[in-house]
Amino acid sequence: MEEDQTQAEQSGQQVQSEQQSQSDQVDQSEYLEAGIQIGARIRTPGIKRYIYKVREDGLYLLDLPTISERIKIAAQMLSRYPPEEIAVTASRVYATAPAKKFAEITGAKLLSGRIMPGIFTNPKRDDFIEPSIILVSDTRNERQAVKEASKVNIPVIALCDTDNWMKFVDLVVPCNNKGRRSLALTYYLIARELQKARGLIKSNEEFNYKVSDFEAKVELRV
């Protein structure tokens, strides 16, 4: 039953995604396999516009064309800033690896783990930085970064699941921001589109990285 539901769900979103242009960033099956569209069972105010449907088990599904569009817009926004003026935050284990790879490729500054009060607002701190824009992996776990940025008018781009709050966020990138493969694909796409927007590559084929390069490694215990 669950398998039938998943197949029907994927079929529905594949039909939905056919409405997109021929210049799609990635094969739509990759979106579905990574689970980039699978949200939570909670829906916060404001997220409704990004939702495609709700499954029978109560999980919300995010709209694939909107995810694709917002990834492109995020890359365009980031391309307006020098690499050293971009900060990316990641607090969850599955977000840290892709965010780190993103920072490595694009030249952004990685802030991993807990964001301390004053990091953007208190020049007396040893770890004080003044980014011109930040990319946040999770507005719940990294709410301090969002709050700090709002105090000094730093634009915020945030990866938001259906249970994330969007207060002080300038651009929402709706996606599953908890899954290992979903986060890897999201950061892979933003990095690739950013390099294209900067004129460093002209096509997807020139981006010499794979989604697996962005994935958090899972240690198997015997």
Please explain how this structure is put together.
The chain is α/β, with parallel strands linked by helices and 222 residues long. It is 36% helix and 13% strand. It has a single domain (2-214), classed as 3-Layer(aba) Sandwich (Rossmann fold). It has helices at 2-17, 28-34, 64-78, 93-106, 143-151, 180-197; strands at 51-54, 60-62, 86-90, 109-112, 133-136, 156-160, 171-174. The protein has a five-stranded parallel sheet, sandwiched between helices. A two-stranded antiparallel ribbon has the order 1-2. Strand 1 and strand 2 form a beta hairpin. Helix 2 (28-34) runs antiparallel to helix 6 (180-197) and helix 3 crosses helix 6 (180-197). The protein is globular, with a radius of gyration of 17 Å. The two termini are 32 Å apart.
Give the biggest beta sheet: 5 strands, parallel
Q: Report the top-level CATH class.
A: Alpha Beta
Pattern of helices and strands: HHEEHEHEEHEEH
The averaged pLDDT comes out at 89
Overall shape: it is: globular
Instruction: Assign the structural class, choosing from mainly alpha, mainly beta, alpha/beta, alpha+beta, or little secondary structure.
Output: alpha/beta
CATH architecture: 3-Layer(aba) Sandwich
**Residues in β-strands, percent:** 5-15%
The residue fraction in helices comes out at 25-40%
Could you give me the name of the CATH homologous superfamily?
Glucose-6-phosphate isomerase like protein, domain 1
Count up the helices: 6
Rg over CA atoms, rounded to whole Å, is 17 Å
Q: Which sequence of strands runs across the widest sheet?
A: 4-3-5-6-7
Low-confidence stretches: 1-11, 15-23
- Separation, N- and C-terminal Cα atoms: 32 Å
Total strands: the figure is: 7
CATH topology: Rossmann fold
